[in-house]
Amino acid sequence: MVRIEEIKFRKILNSAGKISLEVEIIDSDGRKALASSPSAIKPGKREVIAVNNKMDDYGIKDLIDEICSTGIENQEMFDCILNKYMNKVGTGVCLSLSLAFARIMAQREQISLVDYIAKIANYETKYIAPKPLVTIFSGGVHNEQNKGTIQNIMLSVNITPFSKAINPILEIYTDIEKQLKEGNLLKGYGASSGMLVDDMTTDEKFEMVFHTIKKLGYEKEVTIAIDVAAEHFFQDNCYTYQGDKITSEQLNKILSDYKEKYSLTFMEDPFAPNDEKEWRKFKEKNSEIAIVGDDLFATQEQYINSTLANGILIKMNQVGTLTGTICTFIKAKEEKMITCVSHRSIETEDTFMSDLAVALDADYIKIGGPRRGDRIIKYNRLLRLEEENV
């Protein structure tokens, strides 16, 4: 049984240059653990209550009092307490507490965090890092000038071990960055370190990525992936894509054409969550690629439906606890779905997602482009985990 002696909250900076909360838990034996939660620029409609970065009048004192006055037997019991307060304090506070407690428990059991996650999931990990998804271009709600477009154009890097994927990632990203700078097209970097451009069409972006992969000789190992994030340009039963109002069928045709022309292998949220008919049609015709639900499933068991998509994005703060995340993950695996652990648009230095992805053998990990410390630290955690488990 674990006794929590003290819980501290401190304000830290996040990747948006704003304030997030970091949690520090201290148990009765003096062990300490830190954790912090990411957040979204624009959360999906199915997510559990959005992150709350305030520390007063939201039930946090009551939550702390209950945790510190209770002998806690395991992670599930701890997370059950958090779920009681989720609607009051939000997923940011609850997830930070959940992850910090997991780190305390791993210390107490004298095992690695990867082994602890696998143990409570009753899962035999293979200690293999997932295939990275690397943001190249950012649009949609990640780029004010490109609203109503694909949110992310990414690289899918099918090279193992993870350490051998790094050079292709850096080469391709840097080469495209150089091309954009030489053409005076680069306007900055988006939330996930994707490059921001105003004067390129979607096809021009695809062409640049496609031909750069080929030019550098990686066409057998590296393909193109996209996050459409269609929920964010769906309203009144139609999509406003690149300034034009189009039907579900028209969007289906556009995305199918992109898939064929640019050999796409991963497509996230091609349609809004309630557009189930189009999800099914698209999956039936394109089952050879990863068709992945993010806003569709919101990392919650209740929404999982393998007739709509063959893959799921796992974002811990969409559900708010480690136990909830693992339950969704295992359910998806039982349904034979592709799994992808993902960052959020607004990140901290916390690297728990890297350990989670390795512990549960995720197929993919989405950590953004190789710029900015909040993304780089997750790459580096995967490199260290690889070394530890060789």
Topology:
Elements: E1 4-13, E2 19-27, E3 32-36, H1 60-68, H2 75-109, H3 113-120, E4 131-138, E5 152-157, H4 162-182, E6 186-189, E7 195-197, H5 202-215, E8 222-227, E9 234-235, E10 238-241, E11 244-246, H6 248-262, E12 264-268, H7 276-285, E13 290-293, E14 311-314, H8 322-334, E15 338-342, H9 352-359, E16 364-366, H10 373-388
Parallel strand pairs: 4-16, 8-12, 12-13, 13-14, 14-15, 15-16
Antiparallel strand pairs: 1-2, 2-3, 4-5, 5-8, 6-7, 9-10, 10-11
Helix pairs in contact: 1-2, 2-3, 3-9, 9-10
Task: Give your account of this protein's structure.
There is one protein chain. The chain is an alpha/beta fold. It has two domains: 4-111, 2-Layer Sandwich (Enolase-like, domain 1); 131-388, TIM Barrel, CATH 3.20.20. 38% of the residues lie in helices and 21% in strands. The protein is built from ten helices and 16 strands. The protein has helices at 60-68, 75-109, 113-120, 162-182, 202-215, 248-262, 276-285, 322-334, 352-359, 373-388; strands at 4-13, 19-27, 32-36, 131-138, 152-157, 186-189, 195-197, 222-227, 234-235, 238-241, 244-246, 264-268, 290-293, 311-314, 338-342, 364-366. Strands 4-5-8-12-13-14-15-16 form an eight-stranded mixed β-barrel, surrounded by five helices. Strands 1-2-3 form a three-stranded antiparallel beta sheet, with helices on one face. Strands 9-10-11 form a three-stranded antiparallel beta sheet. Helix 2 (75-109) runs antiparallel to helix 3 (113-120) and helix 3 (113-120) crosses helix 9. The longest helix is centred in the N-terminal third of the chain and has 35 residues, at 75-109. The model has no long low-confidence stretch (mean pLDDT 93).
